[in-house]
Amino acid sequence: MQKIDIKIHLFYVLFFFTAITYAGKKINKDKFILASFLSISKKLDNRVHFNSPVYFKLAVQDTVRKVVKSKYRVGSQEHKFIKGIDSTAIRNISVKDDFQYEFYENSITVLTNINAIIPVKNLDQQKIAYVKIGDAINDDFVSTLQKYADVTVIEDKNIDSLQFKLARFSTVIIGYHAIDNSLKNYNLSIDQISKIKFLARNNNVIMNVFANPYCLSALDSFDDIEGLIVSYQNKKVSQIVSAELIFGAIQSKGKLPFSISTHFKSNNGLSTEKLDRLGFTSAENVGMDAVVLSKIDLIANRAIDSKMTPGIQILVARKGKVIYQKSFGYHTYDNIIKVQNSDIYDIASLTKIMATLPNVMLQYDQKKISLESTLAEMAPLFLGSNKQNINLKDLLSHYAGLAAGIPFYKEAMSLSKVPSKLYFRKKIETDYSKQLGDSLFIKNDFSEIMMKLIVDSKLSLKKEYKYSDLTFMILKYYLEQTTGKTLDVLIQDNFYKSLGMNNSSFNPLTKFDKNRIPPTETDNYFRYQLLQGYVNDLSAALEGGVSGHAGMFSNAMDLAKLMQLYLQKGSYGNQRYFSEKTFDDFNTCYFCAEGNRRGAGFDKPQLGKEGPTCGCASMTSFGHTGYTGTMAWADPENQIVYIFLSNRTFPVATTNRLSKANIREDIQKVIYESIFHN
Fold first, then answer.
1. Which of 52, 286, 424, 624 could tie 318 with a disulfide, CB 3.0–4.6 Å?
2. Sequence spans of domains, the chain
């Protein structure tokens, strides 16, 4: 029998006794004990060879598992087993994501919540800063906070300079991140105590303690700390779940397992409001198999290896929880800049349902228009034209006889087939302020010429389905004429700001670093330059980058929020944007009997063999695809949101190999295959 450190033996004996003692007691006791065990046992596992007293550790962990099982659901299809132990007998519960998410969701404790500062609401009215205290990592906490709102990390060693920088923020989140070791008290230093007091006195503060809560006993008052959260450990999952709680994706359920000085007693813990915002968890916690989902990686990498696209972003959410979010490849085939989850893609025709359609639905919800409203009623410009009697239902269903598109660029070219000097300038001028490329500005009123071409265009004599970009160019014109605001302003004011879609914008170079934006194409036919941060679609470019059919740039996380809003039929973050009836009216296929699968603005599953989906999505599902290699799809019956973004058009938009290989559809198929069916 191999020798084992007597301390390790004693630990397991102690834990074995503790586990049995507390097995029938309150859940908060289990949480604190298990928190210590999960931290320590993982370290001990690396030191012990289990060839000797296997029966001893097996007995201990079997007891632990029984305790856990009695309190939480533990059921994963992906088992990670302890080396040297029969895999049919024991799982390594310390690394199971599904357990960890449930564990922290039930454990993280809110101790103060003055003026209901938690959860953070009204994102359009907030300016949020984050300040770190402590030496441990905080990456997952910060990155998750930034998935909910525009959270600015502020650093300065000088406390007065730090406060000067914080003065413009409405809320300051303080994260105390200590190196994990559940047996320590993490006594705050004098400087840290002084810093916390100063910041709390001068700001609206949410303080989050990723350490043993005993460290709080060093503070003599909590009167100035509006929100106080104890997350217990500085782990990846605890950081993610804590950020969820701050923004209301989950509510606080935790209770203190012991008293902290005279301020907080054992079993203290406040409940907070849950908002219907997207959260995060493991696949198993929403009834999906992580092993099956991992096949997505293989398909994405195959697409990149085959040069169908240089890079990809993918997100999958179910039941209001993001369970898969990954990026693959690089911005270009030079393999210099890796794709990050925060990168911003040209989403092409997804603009239709991500910018124009929600504003049209808002007009409909406010009863300013109906599906029977005609173009002549909506926009007097069409009065007397061959389009004056087209109604909104036909228009949105691509059933109005409009041409697929118009080559507007020909109107803007000179006889020598280059951008005409009449319409373009190399430098910005008063009447030439709309930019469509580096050193390329178009005359501001060219969009009026484009609308005149649309009004005068021919209509099909046959009543049939024909996909047309003109539909949403017309609707953009209607919205801007009706509201007096441009579409880029409308979508920010009505949706993006309050949804926390801080990475979404027309003309993104006015807001974001160019290196966050993968290029879409080397334009060798009109603009003659690399298109990076300028919309790929030429018609949208001629409108100055803001059009109803294309022009929006975004990332997978932001788009998932709006798709979740649709899935929740007009509600997100406990804010109602439009009624359930409005969503249902727009998610209806009005001409399915005639062979037209489209809803009112939304694309819908194929009626035959070929179409935009894997063929496995429900008929109530909806979404859209985009020319640059994008897709956003949601399924109410299975509560799934799926986002796929790429720049498959780079460096030259030739054959759409991504589409021909069914990459987006095959990934969607894997998503449905991963669902557990009882």
1. 286
2. 6-95, 108-275, 296-673
